[in-house]
Write a structure and sequence with these properties.
202 residues, alpha+beta, rod-shaped
Length: 202
């Protein structure tokens, strides 16, 4: 997956590559910027190429760079992957993927530092997104909690108001005030019936 991401990056997220080239399934170069033959430890005779039908018989396995030779052996045995190699005493990565419908392999040389920088940028973006999601989740949770508490208070007040009225009325009767009446209840549930019975009793 990482190989495919590196080879098909979008322009705004581009990982800077040193160069890209194509080889066949035998390791023979099909296309490559001429200025980078030396980079890979190759020294082909470019004078022999006169026509577009002329074939460059230069193989990655023939490189004078041992890490390029090892990478060539590995990339010819896999359909895609990332292989570390050293070019000009700097760590690089050789990213490769077999091209569908052909025996060609697309290769991209990427500086190790460029890839690490890209990964660091992606990690920072992910961390910022995670923090934003967490803050939004926390805000929504607090709002929902506050609304739930307010709703509970309203429901409890609504349910306990008739009971408090009944308690106040019994205290008044206990003091000897037999003319005390509980205001008429709009509900006809058990508390409403109890209030009516209390009013009838006194």
């Amino acid at each position: 997956k990482l190989t495919a991401d590196i080879l098909t990056t979008h322009p705004e997220q581009q990982i800077k590559s040193l160069f890209t080239f194509i080889i066949d399934d035998q390791g023979i170069l099909i296309a490559m910027p001429p200025e980078h033959f030396q980079t890979l430890g190759l020294n082909p005779d470019l004078e022999q190429l006169h026509n577009s039908s002329d074939v460059l018989n230069s193989n990655l396995v023939d490189s004078s760079n041992k890490t390029v030779q090892n990478a060539a052996t590995l990339l010819l045995s896999t359909s895609g992957g990332i292989t570390p190699l050293t070019l000009n005493n700097e760590p690089h990565l050789l990213v490769h993927q077999k091209m569908i419908g052909s025996n060609w392999i697309l290769c991209k040389i990427v500086r190790d530092s460029e890839l690490l920088s890209s990964i660091t940028t992606a990690e920072q973006g992910l961390a910022a997104t995670t923090q934003t999601i967490f803050r939004r989740f926390l805000t929504i949770s607090l709002v929902i909690t506050a609304l739930a508490i307010a709703l509970i208070i309203l429901v409890v007040t609504y349910l306990t108001r008739p009971i408090k009225r009944l308690i106040s009325a019994t205290k008044e009767v206990e003091k000897g005030n037999l003319t005390w009446q509980i205001p008429e209840q709009s509900s006809h549930d058990e508390l409403g019936q109890l209030s009516d019975s209390f009013n009838s009793m006194v």
